[in-house]
Amino acid sequence: MRPSGRAFDQLRPVSLEPGFSRHAEGSCLARFGDTHVLCTASVEERVPPFLRNTGKGWVTAEYGMLPRSTHTRTDREAAKGKQSGRTHEIQRLIGRSLRSVVDLAAMGERQIRIDCDVLQADGGTRTAAITGSWVALALAFRKLVEQGLLAAVPLTDHVAAVSCGLCEGVAVLDLDYPEDSTAWADANFVLTGRGGIVEIQGTAEECPFARDQFLELLALAEKGIGELVEIQKRALEA
């Protein structure tokens, strides 16, 4: 029995609340159980220097955790004067994941900045951020279409993410913190709506795991992300 009482292939209760932020062109509050991440998308009519005069746009991301999003307070990284390696790695992952399903040429020379702020953490903050950010990005593109700045939404597919792990030798879907902190192995899967693999981050904590166990994790991820994509679709219909 999992600590949460869930079945091995069951997601936490997931909700994606679109339009949560009044001012952002696109926004979504992603709730994966007790992990809550606010994702906003801001449109800028400029691109990074390396893309000037190319006709292409860009999507980039920033990520941060509020001081009391965890059990004990952590200092803001701004107060420390630098971001941690973990923060850099996660925000680059979010940006790569989103760009994998965007037609950058169809964006024109503009940039969309995604901001992911973890309000409350209980494992899986990066996967919740990716899943919610796709909704925020889609809403920002819709607004550009409504304003006549784009002919169509330049998204080629959905993208979502979920964690899977081996807990006491059993493959389970969507780890919360009690499982994540004790898992024998864990992995984050980023997949498209059509099942394409964008990125897999996997680590053995106790001992190396077998190929067959990895395939079990992948199968769980495919099931979970299929469910997350349906939740994304419903969020955009709300």
Automatic annotation (TrEMBL):
GO molecular function: 3'-5'-RNA exonuclease activity; tRNA binding; tRNA nucleotidyltransferase activity
Tree of life domain: Bacteria
Keywords: Nucleotidyltransferase, RNA-binding, rRNA processing, Transferase, tRNA processing, tRNA-binding
Domain annotation Exoribonuclease phosphorolytic: ranges: 10-140, 159-224
Pfam families: RNase_PH, RNase_PH_C
InterPro entries the UniProt entry points to: ExoRNase_PH_dom1 (IPR001247), ExoRNase_PH_dom2 (IPR015847), ExoRNase_PH_dom2_sf (IPR036345), PNPase/RNase_PH_dom_sf (IPR027408), Ribosomal_Su5_D2-typ_SF (IPR020568), RNase_PH (IPR050080), RNase_PH_bac-type (IPR002381), RNase_PH_CS (IPR018336)
Binding locations of phosphate: R86, G124, T125, R126
GO BP terms, alphabetized: rRNA 3'-end processing; rRNA catabolic process; tRNA processing
CDD domains: RNase_PH_bact (cd11362)
Known catalytic reactions: tRNA(n+1) + phosphate = tRNA(n) + a ribonucleoside 5'-diphosphate
EC number of this enzyme: 2.7.7.56
Described function: Phosphorolytic 3'-5' exoribonuclease that plays an important role in tRNA 3'-end maturation. Removes nucleotide residues following the 3'-CCA terminus of tRNAs; can also add nucleotides to the ends of RNA molecules by using nucleoside diphosphates as substrates, but this may not be physiologically important. Probably plays a role in initiation of 16S rRNA degradation (leading to ribosome degradation) during starvation.
Family statement: Belongs to the RNase PH family.
Complexes and interactors: Homohexameric ring arranged as a trimer of dimers.
UniProt protein name: Ribonuclease PH
Gene this chain is encoded by: rph
